[in-house]
Design goal:
The protein has 422 residues and is of the alpha+beta class. The protein has helices at 6-12, 28-40, 45-54, 62-71, 73-85, 164-172, 198-203, 239-253, 259-264, 281-289, 292-303, 315-337, 357-372, 377-397, 402-410, and strands at 93-94, 97-107, 117-124, 130-137, 153-157, 176-180, 211-219, 226-236, 267-272.
């Protein structure tokens, strides 16, 4: 499942040193066994190296693996790039469009109060394949300019991506955009150039059906402002759904919530550059509902594959660890798709993989981890004494500050239990 040049890439990124004949790890396959076992099975460094050593692999220190993780991010990112670049491009078309969704998800390390890294992904809706993916630090924002788009794609995005430069980037690649309107970052204009009051237009929506209005986006660059023609698409939510939306807004903004924000939550407001004769207002709303599939992808990765369990604090190892998780997620995507034919496609049945992919993920993920694990259960029992002794030796060579802290905390009332006889 790996790219054919994965060994050469390891040499190119300096992770394998062929000029050192006595190196215990001389191939990328051996190196990836360490990295993917550490990341995929959520094993600490010491348990990872001890398990591989007892299975007959090279005997190395936890510090060695830590240093490799610090340097591995570029190599792992190159593998991710190749896996996404070779994804089968068979499209699902809506009037000639290939439907793709883009989104990002934040992850945090232990004890963090904010974001430590961010995972960005683009998925194709007809088969839920990950088309592009990238890991950034906490400063990597959600922007449409992060990816290269193809002609005749319809890019579906939430309001975080709603801004004139991003829309211009999409149009320049021959694609179209369907994005939820963010009234703060995406000003819209009438055809005569006058500002468009989105909320006033929405107040005239009386039925729970999609309506549309011609609207322009103006990109202000050096020289003459550029006008991008599009449509405003909106509909009023039924009262029960509107109240749920208002409750989410109150929860998000707390006491600072405004009446205007609560009113805006009553509507779904979209902007698209797709022509109306190619995608009607009702089809735009139907297409936007599919955006939830990328949210479900992140939920599967986090809940079943533990993408959100960052084990460390350093920025370099955090990004390497998360990129390795992403590599495993893409391999999981490929393994699950090997014998799975695409669902039947019809113009009126746009639901992507109604088979509920999380069920496949929950089966295939532990199988992948079992395949990565070099020590099988039937032989592990016989190796338990040696494995325990190896772990003890690794602990004795490391930092023992945790042990005195534990004793001081729990044995303060037991003066007879000293460090010497504990």
């Amino acid at each position: 499942m790996l790219p054919p040049d994965f060994e050469a890439l390891a040499l190119e990124h300096g992770l394998i040193k062929t000029q050192w004949p006595n190196a215990k790890v001389s191939t990328a396959a051996e190196l990836l066994r360490f990295i993917l076992l550490h990341v995929g099975a959520d094993l600490p460094l010491r348990q990872t190296v001890a398990t591989i050593a007892e299975s007959g692999g090279p005997s190395l220190s936890a510090v060695w693996l830590h240093h490799r993780m610090r340097k591995a991010r570029g190599y792992l990112a190159a593998l991710v790039s190749r896996l996404t670049a070779t994804v089968d491009a068979t499209p699902e078309h809506w009037a000639g469009y290939e439907m793709v969704c883009v989104d990002a998800s934040s992850v945090s390390g232990p004890g963090a109060t904010g974001t430590d890294a961010r995972l960005h992904a683009v998925i194709r809706l007809h088969d839920l394949a990950v088309v592009e993916a990238e890991v950034t630090n906490e400063t990597g924002g959600e922007t449409l300019k992060r990816f290269i788009w193809s002609a005749d794609q319809l890019v579906i995005a939430d309001r975080a991506y709603a801004n004139p430069p991003g829309i211009a980037w999409i149009v320049d690649h021959g694609s179209d955009i369907l994005v939820r309107v963010n009234r703060g970052s995406l000003p819209l204009y009438h055809e005569d150039g006058q500002p468009l009051d989105v909320l006033s237009w929405c107040r005239a929506l009386t039925r729970h059906a999609a309506s549309q209005l011609k609207a322009n986006v103006i990109v202000k660059r050096r020289g003459t402002p550029r006008v991008i023609a599009g449509r405003l698409v909106g509909f009023r939510l039924p009262e029960a759904e509107a109240e749920e939306a208002r409750a989410r807004v109150r929860s998000e903004h707390g006491k600072q919530v405004t009446e205007e924000q609560l009113e805006a939550a009553t509507y779904v407001i979209l902007f698209t550059t797709a022509p109306s004769d190619r995608l009607s207002a009702a089809r735009c709303v139907e297409a936007y509902r599919l955006r939830w599939q990328v949210e479900l992808l992140f939920k599967r990765w986090k809940s079943l594959c533990h993408f959100d369990r960052l084990p460390n604090y350093r920025d370099d190892t955090i990004q390497s660890w998360l990129t390795a998780k992403l590599l495993l997620g893409l391999l999981l995507d490929r393994v699950g798709a090997v014998a799975l034919p695409p669902p039947p496609l019809t113009s009126r049945s746009p639901r992507a993989l109604a088979r509920e992919p999380w069920k496949l993920t929950s089966i295939v993920w532990p199988m992948m981890l079992a395949a990565i694990m070099p020590l099988k259960l039937e032989t592990a029992i016989a190796h338990m004494p040696e494995l325990a002794a190896r772990l003890e030796s690794l602990s004795n060579d490391g930092d023992d500050r945790q042990v005195p802290a534990f004793r001081n905390r729990f044995f303060i009332d037991c003066p007879e239990l000293t460090t010497a006889n504990c």
